[in-house]
């Protein structure tokens, strides 16, 4: 089961933006391209993804052309609003984008480039399952304009992968990284910690294996049990243990120490990079609240404070865009208080932090106590910014509550 869409206002069938919306042309514009296909559904995943038996008539081989209909619609919508900007980042996410032929991904990227243009040096990322990356695939992606491959490693321990229902061969991670390197691509690897039965030694092995691959970037996410997933049902029935918060905290501290020793700097709570130039600029755009258009079923978009989200099923999505209609299922425009809360929530997670001057009076009053509790860096606070300590990263939600009380 995938997560439900938010409840919002009806979205117009032509996709038009409110006339009163003021779009700042100086704000970066990103593009997210959702590819909703997977060979199998992982037990922990509640993303909007579909196996071949769940497509109900939607065709994977027609998906690139279908999505490009929405790209064409977006040009009309943004041109009418006077807000066409070149994309600073493009991100193919999923699902498993590399289940599509590399040529299809290239055509989708070419459609984005011809519609909006790309800024010089734009970051273009493709998420990939290790089993789907060959030298030919990596070379074709690089030739089409992709600059970065994000490889779903998750773990180096076979029984941990089995607990997550991951089916890839762990040896293929190194093969995929090498293929990406030969093609001249930047490389990120994604890890998950806290799977049922995973020990601290298992996690150490995964970290050491990831570091030995010498990627440019590593993401490490704590396993979250989402309601409605297979793993959630297994835990509810007592078949597997729930994640242990204390063990996950130990795993996070091990990750931070291991990665720091290997030359990686944290720049967001769950992300480390070898130098600022290897940070994921696309993900930073989300945390900084810039503008982006999400294409594909279930994708979310944000422009000038307006948010909207597409219908979820690929068949419904194809029907909408094929008939010239917007695939948006609903939209909302959060009020100022909600936007301020979200701004603190997101910006406090990144190493650049958030300016103390942006906080409310009560939030500014809480700063001294957070320094005393070892949750934010005192030196950065003296320079006017909230930056989490290692302890603060483990208790980030508590810091946000204190700053927004």
UniProtKB/TrEMBL annotation:
Entry keyword annotation includes ATP-binding: no
Family matches, as InterPro entries: Aldolase_TIM, Coproporphyrinogen-III_oxidase, Elp3/MiaA/NifB-like_rSAM, HemW-like, rSAM, rSAM_sf
Keyword Iron-sulfur set for record: yes
Subcellular location: Cytoplasm
SMART domains for this protein: Elp3
Radical SAM core domain residues: 23-265
Keywords noted in UniProt: 4Fe-4S, Chaperone, Cytoplasm, Heme, Iron, Iron-sulfur, Metal-binding, S-adenosyl-L-methionine
Domain of life of the native organism: Bacteria
Pfam families: Radical_SAM
Role, per record: Probably acts as a heme chaperone, transferring heme to an unknown acceptor. Binds one molecule of heme per monomer, possibly covalently. Binds 1 [4Fe-4S] cluster. The cluster is coordinated with 3 cysteines and an exchangeable S-adenosyl-L-methionine.
NCBIfam families, sorted: hemN_rel
Family stated for the protein in its record: Belongs to the anaerobic coproporphyrinogen-III oxidase family. HemW subfamily.
Protein name, entry field: Heme chaperone HemW
Organism field: Microbacterium pullorum
